User: Which sequence fits this backbone?
């Protein structure tokens, strides 16, 4: 079994900062890409940022320059530092990881349970 557990969401005023963390645990052989997605009420889930095991990073245009994704491979953890938050950043943020449970298994996409981020104006 593999679990992704997120933490760090909450309520913040516009212009403030939050840091999200997501730790993967369980029967993990290797982790490829890890990332963050978000879903606002009435909208589709969208990519926020991803980072590969080699450190290659991709950001959504809407968060470039404000959010920073990083990972600690030794801890199987991915972080999202969010600065200069805007009300439109309000959403449930989901952690995602592409994980193989053994050398014989194809990597599978795992999701966390989501953490609410609310930015007040």
Assistant:
């Amino acid at each position: 079994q593999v679990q992704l557990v997120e933490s760090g969401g909450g309520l913040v005023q516009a212009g403030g900062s939050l840091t999200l963390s997501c730790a993967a645990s369980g029967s993990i052989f290797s982790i490829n890409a890890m990332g963050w997605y978000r879903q606002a009420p009435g909208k589709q889930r969208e990519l926020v940022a991803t980072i590969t095991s080699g450190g290659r990073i991709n950001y959504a245009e809407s968060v470039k320059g404000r959010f920073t994704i990083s990972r600690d491979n030794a801890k199987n953890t991915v972080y999202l530092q969010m600065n200069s938050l805007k009300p439109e950043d309000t959403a449930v943020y989901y952690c995602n990881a592409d994980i193989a449970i053994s050398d014989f298994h194809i990597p599978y996409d795992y999701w966390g349970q989501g953490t609410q981020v609310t930015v007040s104006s």
